[in-house]
Hints:
heterodimer; A: mainly alpha; Collagenase (Catalytic Domain); globular
Amino acid sequence: MSRLHEHPAAASASAGRRWAEPGRSPRPDERQHGSLDDRADDPVVDRGDDRAADDRAADDRAGLGVDGRVDPVRPSAAWGPPTALRLQRLAGNRAVTSAVTSAVAGAVRRRRGTAPVQRRIPSAAATNPLTAPGVVDRGAHVAGLERLNERALSELSAADRATVMAAAHTAAGSAAAFAALPPVDRATTLATALRTFRPALVLGDPALINVGPRPSTADAANIATLVTNATALINLCMAPAAVPHLRDVFGAANVGTAQARYAAGATRLAWLHTHGKIVTDRSGYSGQVGLGGLTNSARMALSPGTIDSPANDPATVLVLHESMHAGTASVKDHGYLGTPGFTTLAPGTKLDNAAHYEVPARRLRSMAHAYPGIVFVPAGTSVTVGGTVHTAAPLTPLEQANRDASEVTRAAWNMGLNMHSLWVRINLHRTDWSSLDLTAAYTGATAAHFEDCMPYWSKVEALTVHDRPGLSAAGAVTQTAPVTQIDVALSEGLVRLVSRAKDLAKVQLASETTARAFMASQATASEIAAATTSAAMKDLLLLCLCRAVGSMTGAPTRDVRVLNEMATNRTYAAMLTPRSPSAFP
Amino acid sequence: MQVDAAVAAARAAVDARDADALATLATDGADLDALVLPGPEGERTLVEQVLLTGDAAFVRAVLAIPGVSAGRALPEHGSWCWARGAPLGVLEAFAERSGVDLSGADGDGMTLLHELASAGADPAVVRWVLDRVPVDPRATDGSTPLAHALGNGNLALADELRRRGAELDPPSAWNGWTPLITAVVAGMQDVVVWLLAQDGTDVDLGDATGATALHHAARLGRLDALDALLARPDLDGQARDAQGSTALMDAARHGRADVVAALLRHPDPGVDLVDPDGRTALQHALDAGAADVVALLRPLTTVPTTAPALRAADEASGPIDVAIGDPPMDE
């Protein structure tokens, strides 16, 4: 390529490599620590709080260093900007996105096949008072425990499952004796066997979600390091050398807006730090539900792995991502790196999508998944960057369906995370059930109290709340608590499964080719033939995802309704609307 | 004439460098300013295609066609991007025939000189442009061509701009960062050294939060930059940011013994200074549990440590309720 025709992004890519971090010793395995999505959204299992596990998950998501696979978007001799640019010119943005996502597919599939998995259940101390003879609503409590046992068993390997069942049989005397036990005894026996087999299966204390720095630990210093590094990187994204990257990602007309939002993010990050609003989870919940960060303008919740190992680029970029949420209310999540259509979103959507702000930062730090040299062209439009007009074709119906179905899973996951925080709140403060004024406490809420709306969501999410007429906000008896630890565990488990659907969508819905293969593996020929519109294709893809993940709340068709219901009710205004459980058939 | 036909004809004319054919197209009613032409390097507007041929005579001829307006054909934002790799002849032709002011700015305040500075353009081209435009135009984000040149490590151009009087410390409109702060944070040590070698660089200029280059170097552990900064005799080792924190306090808070040791080489690092909460750098090290930093500072600190250790951590150690009155959180 002659200098005359050199694209500014190509030139800036070399400039970006200068933004190194002297004084920071590269780790021997650093090359492998880029991630497709540093949000740790791949189920981190066995050791959810373990930074090493987080890093391994990041490696897997990046598709790097696992089997020597070459990352198609990492600057390298084989796949540097010229090749990426060539691919874009030959086949367009979609081909680039597809290449990015397909690169991770193998690693993610491999992880699914080999990684140890778990699903948590409350401790015996928490469940025994709910299953003892004579307790109020015992049947509902037991049914909830049975669902938790089923989920936990379903995620174990066949060998592990056999081990657990053998232990349960032994406890009962024999397999026949176990089968003959009353349901409540079967459930408690099996729960005991599961806890014994893997102590990490025990649900953590919900009170340890969203906690600040622990005294006499490095937490406070680690958070300071995270904030310092993220602040530096955010500000570098406003520096002159970042302008070509901002043009590539957001379009030349939106550079100023993007810079202003980076500035707002840095300002809010400083506020959150100063006011002690950067918190983490020490209950193991984050690892269970694939949560790396959850943020609004008032609080930033980070995974424990992020806080415990703060001095690395993925952690820094994660905080940058969260800061963009904190700084500008309209900046939400409309698609992560590598998700279908990421490079072809409309300008307004990109400006309101936190993941797009990661791209310039990743370029400046020469990180993976920076889309080097790629100009982000909205589908069906042209953009001019550096005197070159780049054009992207409109999305096909299936591509649109891929994008829409992927977004449903991500939005449902996001809603589930927020809903979980409400369940935890009620679990910790039971009087809130009927006394907290929701209209005053939550923006847009129209339900007066939790009791007016949460039974509906209990039914949607297949918790026990709506099945327990004896619950009460008063008193201290666990059996009548509006939200028990069984409910908390059921909510956590659902969010975990939705997270899995989201991750699966990222891989299986990456392109038309992968989506067709996925449908062929999960749907009948007649179902596929009947899906002739983009909307119908989206519905079918969601059904396929639910079939592939396994039961979330019941049959796949019910799970599809659950996903849609969650995805379309993400705001507190929507969640906290008076509704009867009967409204969800 | 149909647009497709016009595009094909224009493409052929550009390939053949045939300005007469383009003039005929215009005569036949084609809006040449609006044409977008496909090409092996992508699609571009006709005028940009012409500018990017590198053929000055062709550029001159096309811009002379009645109805062709470079000002109209170039985009509002990034309108000078085409010039980033342009040869001098093309710029001369553009200046001669386009009627466009070479010092004009696009929608973001970016000028021709900004683009050349960030692209590492031919020095001869830059010198030619510098003879015709102001040396220090400010873009909307506050950046000057010198800031862009330094941001891309182009020290030769920085020398040229400096010789012509370019300001060394233009602050960013977003965060008040100077080129020195940016270079320190970005780890561009050669740029740091270059800036510190300039007589006019204000080494103690703070950003929007009052943090100086020394603060940033201390926080991020930029030891090379610290060494260079500490070599400047006019460096204020006791500079405070808006929170009243010194670089030494920042380094202590981050538990960076290597940085603290470097800062202690300054003749007056302010070991006994206290922040608005009454805490010395030693107190910050104690709060952070940084024993190696404490070992460095305790023998030098004469002010009693009165602030309660770990106070901030204690305050934040309890569970924090779900956000009240705020929108749902985004992952």
